[in-house]
Amino acid sequence: MTVELIAVGTELLLGNIVNTNAAYLAQQCADLGLSCYYQTVVGDNEGRLMQTLQTALSRSDIVILSGGLGPTQDDLTKEVAARVMGKELQMDAHSRKRLQEYFTRRKIEMTDNNWKQAMVPVGAIVLDNENGTAPGIIMESDDKRVILLPGPPGELVPMFESVVRPYLSRMEPGVIYSQTVKLCGIGESKAETMVADLIAGQDNPTIAPYAKPGEVHLRITARAPGEKEAKKMIKPVVKELKNRFGMNVYTTDTEVTLEQAVVNLLLANHLTVTTAESCTGGLLSAMLTSVPGVSEVFKSGQVTYSNKAKHKLLGVKKPSLDKYGAVSENVAKQMAKGAALSTKADVAVAVTGIAGPDGGSAHKPVGLVYIACSVRGKVKVKEYNFSGNRRKVRENSVTAALTLMRQCILEYYSETTFR
Amino acid sequence: MTVELIAVGTELLLGNIVNTNAAYLAQQCADLGLSCYYQTVVGDNEGRLMQTLQTALSRSDIVILSGGLGPTQDDLTKEVAARVMGKELQMDAHSRKRLQEYFTRRKIEMTDNNWKQAMVPVGAIVLDNENGTAPGIIMESDDKRVILLPGPPGELVPMFESVVRPYLSRMEPGVIYSQTVKLCGIGESKAETMVADLIAGQDNPTIAPYAKPGEVHLRITARAPGEKEAKKMIKPVVKELKNRFGMNVYTTDTEVTLEQAVVNLLLANHLTVTTAESCTGGLLSAMLTSVPGVSEVFKSGQVTYSNKAKHKLLGVKKPSLDKYGAVSENVAKQMAKGAALSTKADVAVAVTGIAGPDGGSAHKPVGLVYIACSVRGKVKVKEYNFSGNRRKVRENSVTAALTLMRQCILEYYSETTFR
């Protein structure tokens, strides 16, 4: 079966935002074994949107539209799609009630134009929006499917995962099953080289490497009559990858993120953790606290941006700050030790670096970052040289800190040292 | 004049990469006053690419294709485009020489398929690639232009800036100029209602509202013979929007974000700031420290996740925690006061709430958040009821905290109270 993606929005045509929804939906559809040959972006314009949808329906079995479901006059995706599919719009009592509750709960005045969002095509499947006001819509005809999703990724992604993915997976006989082996502490090209022989001769299952900042994901995908058979085909590949990558594998569970893996490791070993951040300014603690249940192990963290704060809150010695500078191996170590001491946490991680755009020098350029991790008094510190802008340096620092924490905890228990 | 973008590449259709080229090219074209109504992604497939290009040329004056110019068999953008434009390919001596030099300089053995990249359509304008091997191509007919650019952004962007942008800027006499009025503390539908009369009758300039979590952006766009005239047309609209939205306007500068506006306000008033975060876990301080130059005003912040940390680090009274709970107006206030006291910062903002998925109750549901802000001892606290998952609740809390900080600082100086 073929699928086609249409993103609706003037802000995409003007280049104000990047079409990350298309990449997300395309990857999901590929996973589901649906072939996607076209992606289109079109503005909030009735005539052009109608023509684009008609063309898409003439050549693809399923068309997924995103965006243009909001309350404003601009938003006309639902109206146009209903017309193309020959359906009338009617008020949906369930959606109307949800809308009302949404505004009541948030204590926001509801303007009249919002009711528009509760209008749905007759006979359509209505998808509740758990993260916004506009419901999603699925319209079916004899041989075509039109799926309308809200534009904001924070609404589109959860709606796709909870409802649309299961819906689409029932359309193709046989299943496509994927599992991801996730690596940290290894570069993309090295990882690729290490699986080049497996990729060269592959047919089913296949291995596809994806790079994320500081991580490499190896996605194994099998096609089989049933999930059980697919899983059976994937199992030996996962085993082989674990053999090859050893400790660099932080999870073989597609759903688990690096921060979750680190929090799981802390929980499993009953280790409390604290953070002492300079250049990342709270991004590391924000990442750790994004994991539900982290409160068992994370009690407090500190952002010590100024030298004074590093001295006062973490006990970093003033002469060290003068002699080595705030961005140094020595100060990173003292920050981790000080944080462990003041909070009595088992694990303390400290980040200090130059995120830019200013503050760099020939000797200490932008991107230079030191990260220290203390596990029950055993401290390790590493130097990093990241490239890219302020955001990139900070993001890479957070991933590196998580990777180092994981490594230090594993080393503490295994009493072996690895790269 | 109209322009249309076609990105060629299977990796885009599979969702392996995000189409950042489209956003870049779209923004550049909008800047140049070219209207872009369609963007398409198509794979390295001869038939589909040819059809897509023919459709684009039937409705747009200029078509920019990116990707598919490389040396492999897959790469067929140039061949297809030349056929559609009725041109033969021939070896270009200049490009051939450059290719040879490129490989010699890098000491890489040159495989035979690379010569393909020096083949260009007869009569085409050849654009040297300073960052790769495939040259760009411009083909002209009586009334159409087809521009071929290499896919990697590191090659496409410099080529566009140095050659294509000047080429295109000569084609359209007028310019399009945009300015954005950014609002916080007001919902999208309410904002839209307040400008419905302006939008209803608009022609040039136009106003388009965009919603971001907790923010609304109103983009005003004018077409005029020159930038000066366009700015002059936009000026009264900005003035009218400022009249209507008053204190909800946090900037009229397209480049300024809410966190930047807040940091600018702190800098302008020489106010230092500190954060005390529970449910946001460092996300608010991370947002503030994403702004370069924030170190002038932000010295330290605290993440007090546990009750013990709230008591020990911020001096929140234990009986209050027992009586009102950590998620309460009372505790939020004490957190802000305590943070101000311990750090001596002029402004202290505290966030405490239930981000979920666990921890909610009928009385205190997931999404309930209290934010307190103290400006030199004057404390204000607000209750929020956010919907959505953990990530959404945390993101909305950060935007609300920035909005409240801005409001409290402005009230402190104006001695007036507003919603």
Task: Describe, in plain words, how this protein is organized in 3D.
The structure is a homodimer of 419-residue chains. With 419 residues, the first copy, chain A, is of the alpha/beta class. In chain A, 41% of the residues lie in helices and 25% in strands. Chain A has helices at residues 10-13, 20-31, 46-59, 77-84, 93-106, 153-169, 188-200, 227-245, 258-268, 283-288, 307-314, 318-324, 329-343, 390-414; strands spanning 2-8, 35-42, 62-66, 89-91, 119-121, 125-127, 136-140, 145-149, 175-184, 206-212, 215-224, 249-251, 273-277, 298-304, 347-353, 368-375, 378-385. In chain A, the strands form four sheets. In chain A, strands 2-1-3-8-7-6 form a six-stranded mixed sheet, with helices on both faces. In chain A, a hairpin with a 2-residue loop joins strand 10 and strand 11 (215-224). The longest helix of chain A is centred in the last third of the chain and has 25 residues, at 390-414. In chain A, 49% of the residues are buried. At the A-B interface, helix 1, helix 2, strand 2, helix 5 and helix 10 of A face helix 2, strand 2, helix 7, strand 10 and helix 10 of B.
